[in-house]
Design a protein that fits this description.
Blueprint (H helix, E strand, L loop, with lengths): L8 E3 L4 H9 L5 E5 L6 E5 L13 E3 L33 E3 L6 E5 L1 H7 L6 E6 L4 E3 L6 E2 L6 E3 L4 E11 L2 E11 L11 E3 L4 E2 L8 E2 L10 E3 L6 E5 L12 E4 L4 E6 L8 E7 L2 E5 L10 E2 L3 E3 L3 E9 L4 E8 L2
């Protein structure tokens, strides 16, 4: 998904004293012993008469051997050339293995993380999963290493996943178009889709709900994230007050997909779940012709009671309670 070549770490084996000597003399150090296969030294003696310390892995050797041209990194001023190799548009692909509706769709970002090295932990990215959920935003960039490795689409259909990378005032995006099969007719050999080439974009705003809710005094809720155990539950008709709301039950850390019946058909609903004192929006599709509404997959980390509030187009509110117990 995202390309970055790490800028080489400029490691000067010579000390400041050595650099001064380099100006004053034609030769600074000598070889303790030489290999017979060229101009490499098996040990390098520093000006203090002791063997020079080994250069760290992935460093650039700036020791001035006779007849050797120094790498460009050795000639740069401090700070010059940093991150010059960073190019979002040249990152490896992300691979997506598409699961059926209400099952897990997985993301393989290993090639990108490997290519980015230490930069994969920098907050540079966000994603829109195409179903109303996402991870991060233009104003809340996330590190690639923190991204969810899976997602659950509760309805079959076509979705466009859009990944964004933002760096140094520029944002690039890439897309993956996937088709999620019905849970009743899963694909025995799921497709693996690779991301497209990254291109510069000015369309950086996403209308999504975070895949991972913030922590509160009660715990945290994850929205749309996959898990090892996935449960489906259909509540009774929602109540007009939270105090009388019907309950559905799930174990902590298990994924729950709730279907709510007996709602006005073909209507839009704002769904929210209360965690502590905060209401988090839950992306939903419209109510079906049959009057049912399926919520995005929810995972609660801690035991407790969580209220789901459904606000209808008329302004009326309906409630369901999710009981999380061990």
């Amino acid at each position: 998904m995202f390309a970055m070549r790490k800028s080489a770490t400029r490691t000067l084996v010579l000390s400041a004293v050595t650099m001064a000597l380099l100006v004053a003399t034609a030769s600074v150090s000598v070889a303790a012993s030489m290999t017979q296969s060229g101009s490499k030294y098996s040990a390098q003696i520093c000006p203090d008469g002791n063997p020079c310390p080994a250069a760290p892995a992935a460093s650039v050797d700036c020791t001035p051997y006779a007849g050797k041209t120094l790498p460009r990194e050795c000639t740069l001023a401090p700070g010059e050339g940093e991150n010059e190799g960073f190019n979002i548009g040249n990152l490896p692909d992300v691979k997506v293995t598409v699961g059926a509706a209400r099952k897990v769709t997985t993301f393989d970002m290993s090639d990108v993380i490997s290519a980015m090295g230490q930069y994969s932990s920098m907050a540079l990215f966000y994603v829109d999963f195409g179903d109303g959920t996402g991870y991060g935003s233009a104003g809340n960039l996330r590190a690639l290493t923190s991204f969810p490795s899976s997602h659950i689409y509760v309805e079959a259909g076509n979705y466009t996943i859009t990944g964004y990378g933002s760096y140094n005032g520029r944002t690039d995006s890439t897309t993956m178009n996937i088709t999620v099969p019905s849970a009743k007719n899963p694909d025995p050999t799921p497709d693996t889709i690779s991301s497209t080439t990254w291109t510069k974009t000015t369309d950086t705003v996403t209308d999504t709900v975070e895949a991972t809710g913030s922590a509160s005094s009660v715990g945290s809720v994850q929205i749309g994230v996959g898990g090892a155990a996935i449960s489906d539950a259909t509540s009774k008709a929602p109540a007009t007050s939270a105090a009388t709301a019907p309950q559905v039950t799930v174990k902590p850390s298990n994924v729950l997909i709730v279907t709510v019946p007996k709602l006005p058909p073909d209507t839009e609903v704002l769904a929210e779940v209360k965690v502590g004192k905060t209401w988090y929006e839950i992306p939903t599709a419209d109510v079906t012709d049959g009057g049912t509404l399926t919520l995005s997959a929810l995972t609660f980390i801690k035991a407790g009671s969580y209220t789901v509030r459904l606000t209808l187009e008329s302004g009326a509110k309906r409630y369901v309670t999710i009981k999380v117990k061990r």
